[in-house]
Amino acid sequence: MSRVAQGAIAAGLGIAVAEVAYLFSYFGPTEGFMSDWKGSLPKRDEEGFLVFDQKFISESMIIDIIARTGSFIFLFEGEFHGRNELLPGIISRDAQGVLFASSRKCTHEGCLVEFRDDVVVSSKSYQKVWYCLCHDAIFNANNNGGVLAGPPPSPLQQFDIEVNEGGKKVKLIPR
Ligand code: FES
Fold this sequence. Notes:
By secondary structure, the chain is α+β, with helices and mostly antiparallel strands. Helices cover 19% and strands 39% of the residues. The strands form 3 sheets. Strands 1, 5, 6, 7, 12 and 13 form a 6-stranded antiparallel β-sheet that branches.
């Protein structure tokens, strides 16, 4: 039996909003995690559970990595402009400290979106959003990935996070 991890994990963490923003912007969404894992990234098995080097990734491992680096990076199989590809995704915490999982592949032409505390596009200021440098796109980082500005045709893919009993396996459910 599985349970949805959002909310429960956040309540246990009790991370302040300011600290979340700091971790995100200081380390960047990928660098800390990639150095932890020597440049390799976890993938998903056929049931959607996260695996790395043929071992399942536990809930506590994800929480620990986010605590140290601000984010946990994974790859997922998805369709991009009619092609099946391995796409980059990220697990981190939103402004309320709740874990979320999102694609980082811009839905316009596929550049990697970056988290920004503050960015100005077309004279409008946005705070705590996903930003795509390629064509100045802005996506909502508040757990829905919606397009706020720019040419992308659709939101960033979002996932629900589920853990199995005991937290030994973590599954990402595409919304
Ligand atoms: S590739 Fe992201 S806005 Fe064009």
